[in-house]
Design goal:
The complex is a heterodimer of chains A (about 45) and B (about 130). Chain A has about 45 residues and is mostly helical. Chain A contains 2 helices and no strands. Chain B is α/β, with parallel strands linked by helices. Chain B contains 5 helices and 5 strands. The longest helix of chain B has 19 residues. The chains are: A mainly alpha (about 45), B alpha/beta (about 130).
């Protein structure tokens, strides 16, 4: 299997752009509560 | 529940502090202190040891996230709820990772704000009472 470094780098850049864009996205209180619940479950399962 | 909930409200906008105070008073909680910037909030936190702290994100001198980190460093697990007019996924993630218990958008319905504060108080009691 041949790897194309250019394509891999382009894919990484696209992923990064997606992550940055999603971090900047405005979210509703409902979405915040979902994030809060998810975080609590994650923290709860670790303790 | 005989003990009154002591709350610290930090926001640089006086009308927002007033609005939050109105909600808290209606919930029979005690607004122990108010602060107009993060640094004053940190001082009031040390002085008053509130049960719940409501922190605005965008404040002068020291922003809400910096204040949250400073509070958590001094008192890990302190009950802090963040307030903001705008909420991006990134800032919510950063606040939760820094130890915020919850996050309230300021345009949220009053009933929902009350529910979040009540939930925080219930959580505080369930964690604190067994230790006494």
């Amino acid at each position: 299997m041949k790897y194309n470094l250019k394509e891999i780098l382009a894919e990484i850049k696209e992923d990064e752009t997606h992550v940055v864009a999603s971090r900047k996205k405005q979210i509703s209180q409902k979405e915040i509560q979902a994030m809060v619940e998810k975080r609590r479950k994650k923290v709860g399962s670790k303790s | 529940m005989t003990e009154k909930v002591r709350v610290l409200v930090a926001d640089d906008e006086a009308h927002i502090r007033q609005l939050i105070k109105g909600i808290l008073i209606a919930m029979k909680t005690e607004v122990t202190a108010e602060a107009h910037n993060g640094l004053v909030a940190l001082e009031k936190f040390r002085e008053c040891q509130p049960h719940i702290t409501l922190l605005d994100i965008n404040m002068p001198v020291m922003d809400g996230l910096q204040t949250l980190r400073a509070i958590q460093k001094e008192k890990p697990g302190a009950m802090v709820i963040m307030l903001s007019s705008l909420a991006t996924m990134g800032i919510v993630q950063d606040c939760l990772a820094a130890g915020a218990y919850d996050f309230i958008r300021k345009d949220t319905a009053i009933a929902d704000i009350k529910a979040i504060i009540k939930n925080a108080w219930k959580h505080y009691l369930s964690n604190e009472l067994p230790k006494k």
